[in-house]
UniProtKB/TrEMBL annotation:
GO terms for molecular function: protein serine/threonine kinase activity. Residues 11-115 form the Histidine kinase/HSP90-like ATPase domain. SUPFAM superfamilies: ATPase domain of HSP90 chaperone/DNA topoisomerase II/histidine kinase. Signal peptide: none annotated. Keywords: Kinase, Serine/threonine-protein kinase, Transferase. This is Regulatory Protein. Transmembrane segments: none annotated. The keyword Lipid biosynthesis does not apply. Gene3D superfamilies: Histidine kinase-like ATPase, C-terminal domain.
Length: 154
Protein backbone atom coordinates (compact mmCIF):
# COMPACT_ATOMS: atom_id res chain seq x y z
CA UNK A 1 0.00 0.00 0.00
CA UNK A 2 1.09 3.57 -0.63
CA UNK A 3 2.59 5.73 2.12
CA UNK A 4 -0.15 8.32 1.75
CA UNK A 5 -3.72 7.92 0.50
CA UNK A 6 -6.36 10.62 0.21
CA UNK A 7 -9.99 10.62 -0.81
CA UNK A 8 -12.62 13.33 -0.77
CA UNK A 9 -16.26 13.89 -1.66
CA UNK A 10 -18.34 17.08 -1.61
CA UNK A 11 -22.06 16.70 -1.02
CA UNK A 12 -25.03 19.07 -0.78
CA UNK A 13 -26.04 20.10 2.73
CA UNK A 14 -29.12 17.95 2.64
CA UNK A 15 -30.21 15.21 5.05
CA UNK A 16 -29.96 12.60 2.25
CA UNK A 17 -26.25 13.39 1.94
CA UNK A 18 -25.54 11.92 5.38
CA UNK A 19 -26.21 8.42 4.05
CA UNK A 20 -24.13 9.15 0.95
CA UNK A 21 -21.23 10.28 3.17
CA UNK A 22 -21.40 7.05 5.22
CA UNK A 23 -21.50 4.90 2.08
CA UNK A 24 -18.56 6.78 0.55
CA UNK A 25 -16.40 6.44 3.64
CA UNK A 26 -17.12 2.74 4.20
CA UNK A 27 -16.40 2.01 0.52
CA UNK A 28 -13.14 3.97 0.57
CA UNK A 29 -11.96 2.26 3.76
CA UNK A 30 -12.74 -1.13 2.17
CA UNK A 31 -10.62 -0.18 -0.86
CA UNK A 32 -7.82 0.69 1.56
CA UNK A 33 -8.02 -2.70 3.27
CA UNK A 34 -10.49 -2.15 6.09
CA UNK A 35 -13.57 -4.24 5.30
CA UNK A 36 -17.07 -3.05 6.11
CA UNK A 37 -18.50 -4.59 9.24
CA UNK A 38 -15.29 -4.44 11.26
CA UNK A 39 -15.38 -2.58 14.57
CA UNK A 40 -13.15 0.22 13.28
CA UNK A 41 -15.14 0.61 10.07
CA UNK A 42 -18.40 0.75 12.04
CA UNK A 43 -16.91 3.33 14.43
CA UNK A 44 -15.74 5.55 11.57
CA UNK A 45 -19.14 5.16 9.85
CA UNK A 46 -20.91 6.35 13.02
CA UNK A 47 -18.51 9.26 13.49
CA UNK A 48 -18.97 10.38 9.87
CA UNK A 49 -22.73 10.11 10.31
CA UNK A 50 -22.62 12.41 13.34
CA UNK A 51 -20.21 14.90 11.69
CA UNK A 52 -22.22 15.03 8.45
CA UNK A 53 -25.48 15.43 10.37
CA UNK A 54 -23.95 18.34 12.29
CA UNK A 55 -22.77 19.94 9.03
CA UNK A 56 -26.30 19.72 7.61
CA UNK A 57 -28.25 20.72 10.74
CA UNK A 58 -26.09 23.36 12.38
CA UNK A 59 -24.95 25.50 9.45
CA UNK A 60 -28.42 27.05 9.27
CA UNK A 61 -28.47 27.00 5.46
CA UNK A 62 -25.26 29.05 5.27
CA UNK A 63 -23.16 26.18 3.92
CA UNK A 64 -24.61 24.81 0.67
CA UNK A 65 -22.22 21.86 0.70
CA UNK A 66 -19.94 19.91 3.02
CA UNK A 67 -16.83 17.91 2.20
CA UNK A 68 -15.71 14.62 3.69
CA UNK A 69 -11.94 14.04 3.55
CA UNK A 70 -10.07 10.84 4.34
CA UNK A 71 -6.29 10.67 4.73
CA UNK A 72 -4.27 7.57 5.54
CA UNK A 73 -0.60 8.21 6.41
CA UNK A 74 1.92 5.36 6.25
CA UNK A 75 -0.71 2.82 7.32
CA UNK A 76 -0.40 4.31 10.82
CA UNK A 77 -2.94 7.11 11.14
CA UNK A 78 -6.37 7.70 9.63
CA UNK A 79 -7.81 11.22 9.57
CA UNK A 80 -11.45 11.75 8.72
CA UNK A 81 -12.77 15.29 8.50
CA UNK A 82 -15.97 17.06 7.56
CA UNK A 83 -15.64 20.64 6.35
CA UNK A 84 -18.42 23.19 5.94
CA UNK A 85 -18.38 26.90 5.17
CA UNK A 86 -20.23 28.10 8.28
CA UNK A 87 -17.90 30.12 10.55
CA UNK A 88 -19.36 29.09 13.92
CA UNK A 89 -17.20 26.49 15.63
CA UNK A 90 -19.03 23.64 17.33
CA UNK A 91 -19.38 23.72 21.06
CA UNK A 92 -20.46 21.11 23.51
CA UNK A 93 -23.90 21.89 24.84
CA UNK A 94 -25.23 20.57 28.12
CA UNK A 95 -27.58 17.75 27.14
CA UNK A 96 -30.68 17.24 29.23
CA UNK A 97 -31.47 13.64 30.10
CA UNK A 98 -34.65 13.65 27.98
CA UNK A 99 -33.13 15.65 25.12
CA UNK A 100 -33.18 13.84 21.76
CA UNK A 101 -30.22 15.69 20.27
CA UNK A 102 -27.21 17.77 21.28
CA UNK A 103 -24.94 14.86 22.12
CA UNK A 104 -23.19 14.47 18.75
CA UNK A 105 -19.80 15.89 19.76
CA UNK A 106 -19.86 13.97 23.03
CA UNK A 107 -20.48 10.74 21.10
CA UNK A 108 -17.78 11.54 18.54
CA UNK A 109 -15.23 12.45 21.20
CA UNK A 110 -16.00 9.27 23.15
CA UNK A 111 -15.81 7.01 20.06
CA UNK A 112 -12.53 8.57 18.98
CA UNK A 113 -11.03 8.18 22.46
CA UNK A 114 -12.24 4.56 22.73
CA UNK A 115 -10.42 3.85 19.45
CA UNK A 116 -7.20 5.51 20.61
CA UNK A 117 -7.80 8.73 18.70
CA UNK A 118 -8.94 12.27 19.24
CA UNK A 119 -11.33 14.91 17.95
CA UNK A 120 -10.10 18.26 16.65
CA UNK A 121 -11.62 21.37 15.14
CA UNK A 122 -9.83 23.90 13.00
CA UNK A 123 -11.00 26.96 11.07
CA UNK A 124 -10.49 26.97 7.30
CA UNK A 125 -8.86 29.79 5.36
CA UNK A 126 -12.20 30.40 3.66
CA UNK A 127 -13.93 31.13 6.98
CA UNK A 128 -15.54 27.76 7.63
CA UNK A 129 -14.32 24.89 9.77
CA UNK A 130 -13.19 21.29 9.65
CA UNK A 131 -14.16 18.89 12.42
CA UNK A 132 -11.97 15.83 12.21
CA UNK A 133 -10.85 12.75 14.02
CA UNK A 134 -7.47 11.08 14.03
CA UNK A 135 -7.37 7.36 14.70
CA UNK A 136 -4.63 4.76 14.66
CA UNK A 137 -4.99 2.65 11.50
CA UNK A 138 -5.87 -0.90 12.43
CA UNK A 139 -6.70 -2.79 9.25
CA UNK A 140 -7.16 -6.49 10.02
CA UNK A 141 -4.22 -8.70 9.10
CA UNK A 142 -6.53 -11.50 8.03
CA UNK A 143 -9.38 -11.31 5.52
CA UNK A 144 -12.91 -11.26 6.90
CA UNK A 145 -15.45 -13.73 5.50
CA UNK A 146 -18.95 -12.75 4.41
CA UNK A 147 -20.17 -14.07 7.77
CA UNK A 148 -17.87 -11.62 9.55
CA UNK A 149 -15.34 -14.22 10.75
CA UNK A 150 -11.64 -13.82 10.19
CA UNK A 151 -10.04 -16.37 7.91
CA UNK A 152 -6.74 -17.82 8.99
CA UNK A 153 -3.92 -17.58 6.50
CA UNK A 154 -1.99 -20.78 6.00
Amino acid sequence: MADHLEASVTLPSDPASVSAARTYVVGTLAEWGLPAGTEVSDTVRLIVSELATNAVQHTLGQSPTFTVDLVLDREERLCVGVTDSHPRLPKRLPAAVQQDNGRGLVIIRWLAAESGGRLRVRPTREGGKTVFIELPWTAPAEPVTAAGRRERRR
